[in-house]
Amino acid sequence: MDDVVGLLIVLGLVVLAVPVLLIVALVSVSGLKRRVAALEAQVAALRSARPATAPAQGVASPPRPAPASTVREPADDPTLAELPRAQATPPAAREAAPPPASTGAVPPPVPPLPEPPRATFENVRREPTPPQQPRPPAESDFATLALRTVKRWFTVGNVPVKIGVLVLFAGVAALLKYAADQGWLTVPPELRLAGIAAAALGALVFAWRKRESNRTFALSLQGGAIGVLMLVVFAAFKIFALMPAGAAFALSIVLVAGAGMLAVLQDAKALAVFALLAGFLAPIWLSTGSGNHVALFSYYAVLNAAIVGIAWHKSWRVLNLLGFAFTFGIGTAWGAFDYVPEKYASTQPFLALFFVFYLLIPLLFARRQPASRRDFIDGCLVFGMPLVAFSLQAALMQGSTFDESRMPLAFCALGLGVLYAALAWSLRRRENFDVLAQAYALLAVGFATLAVPLALSARATASVFALEGAALAWLGLRQQRLLPQISGAGLQLAAAVALLLVVDAWRFDEVALANPTFMGALLIALAGFASAWAYRAGGKPGFALAYYLWGLAWWCGAALREFDQFLPPAWRADADALLMFVALTGWLAAEAHRRRPATALAWTTLAALALAFPLALWQTGAHQHPFAGLLGAWSWLAYAVFGIRSLQCLRDSEHRLAGAAQFVWWLVWPLAASLLLGWLPDRIDGMGQGWQLALMALPWLATVAMALFRWRWISAPLGERFDGWRNVLLGVLFAVLSLWWLGALFSAGDASPLPWLPVLNPMELAQLGVLVLALCWLLPQGHPGIPRPSLIVLLAAVAFVWVTSVVLHAVHHWGGVPWDGRLLSTSLAQTSLTVVWSVLGVLGWVIGSRRGQRMLWLAGAVLMAVVLAKLVLVDRQHLGNLLGIGSFIAYGLLCTVVGYLAPAPPRQQDSEESVA
Q1: What was the pLDDT predicted at 551?
Q2: Which pTM does this prediction carry?
Q3: Alpha helices of 159-289 — where are they, by DSSP H?
Q4: Which residue, of 64, 109, 520, 768, is most buried by count of CB atoms within 10 Å of its CB?
Q5: Distance in angstroms (rounded) separating the CA atoms of residues 135 and 89
Q6: Strand partners, 783
Q7: In the chain, where are the structural domains located?
């Protein structure tokens, strides 16, 4: 019934409110309509206003100037252009013109100028918009460049000759093969081949004679003629068996050499590329299957010597790349299928010779560049050649006498490091060779570093891939070339895959840290960090962040693997070593950030400091408190040392995250100390739970006290730059203490071995300390989100809750009532609450009346009303015992006293002055 009555009351209020709202809306609309009508009348008056039509005779009244936005030159305004010249003259010009001489006749009145047209979006002059700057051309990727090259080949130059030679070449080859298969030609094969060779030689001579007058045609014809001659040699050897393999091979070498000479003499790069392709493919199509690798590599040595000779005079990079690709590609394929350890002695010299060739070619390429472009180096050869050569060297040693020990490969890596260091040192003193010198220095450091894991294990490929990938990424970024950057990223990814493929071999590592697995992962991480450094310097923060996270992941993964592999079983469940590693990582990031600030590094330091929260809880679960165990105290000592230094580094860099790092720092230590002090009562027999709760709150209270009264202790090392975090830090500290405070309300708070006294016990003293510190923080400065009167009410409500808790704890400890859900239902608890609440209400009533504080008086009155409601609803069921009767009597006496001392509330003016 009461719910129905309340619902009817609410509906009645709504029904009464709707007409009122409608009346207010109509009044507002009518007011708006009146204002709009007045504005329309003013606009009409302004439109109807006109300048004076006829001034007095002999007196010229100056025309009223038009607004600046509507003034136009006569030539610009079509309206003025249609008027006579005298009328079209602007007013300023008419004023400046001298008056006409008087003739005695009264001049006719000048008709007024028509009103200028109103400014519209069409006739208002617009400011000329500045021309847009042309966008810089976007960088083309590899596929676009390849398509553009193919398109250029088919659209630039003598296109018919190019296409015709290609088609003719394919047609002659097909005709020769088909005629031989079908036996259509009755002419002896010697004559047929001789005729074709003679025609090709005639075409070659004709093309040579036309090299000046028609260069494109001549070069294309020369390439086609040499190709036909090589096909004749192939047919004579393979199809008709008219010549031995040696003669066919010798003729092929002569033709390749001749094509190379023609290319150099005529500066024809395309012809040189054709000769090189033919030269490398000749041993394949002339192969007899004998497997004579010495003859094959000797022939390739001659070809590469020719490439070196050409590189001495021409900077044809495509020639160098093709030679490198075919030499090492065919060599790798031969090694994969035909190499056996017995061929090591006859293969190693060729690998060393090819290494020397392609070590010289980048130097010659850089020497041929203009002085202003010598920083444009051939990165694929500078970094790719040692990568491939060293990997082939490692493969050659497998199964040989060197496979028993990895030291020869380690010495090989060390020798390469020394070689590249010498090259870097020699080029450092030469002008315009800085980039090449830096590249060689990177390779020297990489191979010298690689010698360490190689001396312990054979896992060299992953490390080489990682180092070379970082070097390629740096070079591609330096030269603004996309392909080396993609290759560098791919090599680093390949390094990771190569290391993960030998995961079964990880368990054979016997030494912590100084094992090949950790060294390989460390090199991958360092390669990622180096790439991130280069990309950040190149202005590409997105790629830099990706590389940095890649390196950080490998760094952390390598450390976790070492912990799992080499820590004793009893320590693996602890977080002590992990806390040391996290602090070390944060410190290293902070040191790098101090030298070259980067937000990712600052975030790493901040995350390292913040990870102490879960690690402290992990340590507590493992060995009861964070500082226990063999490494517990040492781990926190390392965290303190590395953390202080990290904060100093962030301070020196003046990064915005420095305050957040110090903020986290001052939250970690109260937590660790709280977990330690909370463990102490469990170690002492007879100590109650109240001591444990008080000791757990003590570090937080101490930190709050320092933040309030000794802020300089907290603000170091940032100093004044940490002042903006003061309220944030206090807010979080009080939030933690508030949770603790609420939790303590539901605890019995045993103070044994000491007797329990109200307020004067450890738990309630800590609760009182929280309230006092909150008053010291909030009352002097207030709170930005809570008005001061509301703040006072909130603190008073919290204090009231605390007093109620003290009363209930007194009932438990002194009255012997169990601390459970039945406590509130006892007569002793209800009577005690009635008496104490009544005393508080009386005090508020009386003090508010005497001091003229109306709010305090009202608070006492509200509390007394609550007590009265409690008597009627709750305590009346206890009137059958003395406690219930005593609560009623006490309340009546207190109300009587209040009626005598403070019968009326203080005046409103006095209360407002007191609040103000």
Answers
A1: 94
A2: 0.55
A3: 159-182, 189-209, 215-234, 245-266, 269-285
A4: 520
A5: 47
A6: 786
A7: 826-916
